[in-house]
Amino acid sequence: MEELLIGLALSLVASVGGGWWGLRRLSQARHLLDTPTSKIRSAAQGYVEFYGVLEEQADTAIVAPLTGKPCLWWRFKIEEYRSNGKNRSWRVVESGRSEGWLLLGDGTGHCLIDPRGAEVRPATREVWRGNLRHPRGVARSGWMALLDGGKSYRYTEERLHSGQPLYAIGEFRSSGGGRQGFDPSVAQGAVIREWKGDFAGLLQRFDSDRNGQLDDQEWSRVRLAAQLEAEDRHRQHSQRPARHHMGKPGEAQPFILASAGEDELARQFYWQAAGGALLCLAGALAMAWLLGESWPS
């Protein structure tokens, strides 16, 4: 009976997990194909996709932790080989990823990208083995890598480098350059709330009769001054050069940064969705078989 329950539980997990994964990948593929490619200079605010080239940022130096190679973004994983009788497996003992912003250019402008929360799929990936918990030096290649076959640690490092192409889809926002809308009442209210934080200073500026209170006439002056201040701030902010940013969408939309193009990504997601559907079907068939075998004849 216990073996039956374990089998049913595993079959249920496979069916539900496979179905969820398949639907998720199918939805992501549709998002990629349905979202038109935009240019950074003219992109609308909201959910967009860009094609461009990664560029270095001034005064920003990033070095990958395992190989020590300069890059713009990295992710690493260290696994240890464990052997306990017949059970042999690689177990992750350490992992991490960088959170530094990326700079993407597409010929029309530049966009800063916050990679936190993104599914990053870089083209550069190195895997090698060694005897130390933390490797020293770069990964071996060619026939030298064959000498590491008996090592007890396996290292994986992925990187994004300057000059590499990048496909990015996520939430796009701009500031400066006159891109923001201006709501006079909201901006005026924000200035008044700011001034109320220093009420003594507010009284000093607008309490004409020095009675420690602001009457209706004095409040009218406060509102007029706040309106003028809000308009001046908006004018100054609009004169700044436009700055573009991309980050994780607030809704359940994919946030992907990849060296591969949209069509290749969508094709991979469709295959993964098909794999999820097959796993879901296999789990359902296994549950049906187990229930049929346990049913009294």
From TrEMBL:
Residue span(s) of domain E3 Ubiquitin ligase MUL1-like: 81-178
Membrane topology: Multi-pass membrane protein
Keywords: Membrane, Metal-binding, Transferase, Transmembrane, Transmembrane helix, Ubl conjugation pathway, Zinc, Zinc-finger
Subcellular location(s) per record: Membrane
Ranges annotated as biased composition (Basic residues): 235-247
Ranges that cross the membrane: 269-291
EC class of the enzyme, as a word: transferase
Main location: membrane
EC number: 2.3.2.27
Catalytic activity: S-ubiquitinyl-[E2 ubiquitin-conjugating enzyme]-L-cysteine + [acceptor protein]-L-lysine = [E2 ubiquitin-conjugating enzyme]-L-cysteine + N(6)-ubiquitinyl-[acceptor protein]-L-lysine
Annotated region described as Disordered, given as residue ranges: 230-250
InterPro entries per the UniProt record, alphabetical: EF_Hand_1_Ca_BS, MUL1-like
Protein name in UniProt: RING-type E3 ubiquitin transferase
Organism phylogeny: Bacteria, Pseudomonadati, Pseudomonadota, Gammaproteobacteria, Pseudomonadales
